[in-house]
Predict the structure.
Amino acid sequence: MPPSTSIRYLRHVLSPTSPALLLRTAPPLATPPPPTQSSTYATVAPIQKHKIAKTLAAAAPAAGNASEGRVYSPTQPPSFKAPTSQKTLLSRLYLSLLRSSPLTIIFQPNSMRATEWSAIRRELAGVLAKVDAGLPEEEKLGKFIGIMTVNTELLGVAMRIADTPAPGGKLWTHGTSLEAADGGKRLKRKHHLASLLVGPLAVLTFPRLSPVHIAAAMDMLFPVRRGPAKKGFDPAATAGLQKCILLGARVQERPVGTGRALNDEGIRWLSGLKSVDEMRGEIVALLQSVGGGEVVRALESVAISLGRTVEGRRRLLEEEAGGPKEEEGKVEA
């Protein structure tokens, strides 16, 4: 490098306005403070701050529902477990399932595979679809009948709450509340299905008591004699059904109150009942065979005998009430 060029370079570097000299002589940058809750809140946009403050102000009137230092919304009263936990979600799901299912068949699957479950559900849907093909539209229930694997402990809790009426004999409006849990604990060892709630469980639910659908499902899942598989039946479903053991069923007779427990024979008896149309046809045939005149006379005889009984009782009461007055009139005369 020529001497003149090097001299000009040194003058440029050592000049007061040189960028390199300014960087060397600049003071060190201050270390940013560690983030705190206030500084994090300060970095939120002003509109977001307003939304957060508005949400906190709306939650303040719900302090009356506070329990153990937590504030609950008026639409979400305190729960026995955390409202956002999976156990609370499953408890509500099982409770709703039991209330909406008049018949719940309980069975025990042992070491089932996912492919076997899929094959069983697919074959069951096909069997129920064949049953629905010969029924009117309002009686088709195949798409509402399904199998669900359940948590045994949580199913027992939901079943005890469903069978324990709230004060006044009504349904629990909040099935996972502290009061509902305390009421269900009374049936922990006295529940009629407590002996069945052991081990891995699955349920088959029916939205309505339809003997035709119950019989079709029972013949496929739990036949009386399990013979060779039918032609076209999925081998995975056959292998899965051999691992299923029927335990019993729960029949809900009333919207509120304890359901009835059925064993294998009771379920098959229920599935052997005739449909509503068949029973109506039998009643019509019976009335036609007996004759309409005899039926009318039989009904009239009941009404006539009841009327005579009421009339005789009325006359007897009138005589008892008017007897002393007549005797007093005779004495005065």
Notes: Residues 9 and 206 are 93 Å apart (CA to CA). Strands lie at 103-109, 146-150, 201-206, 244-251, 260-262.
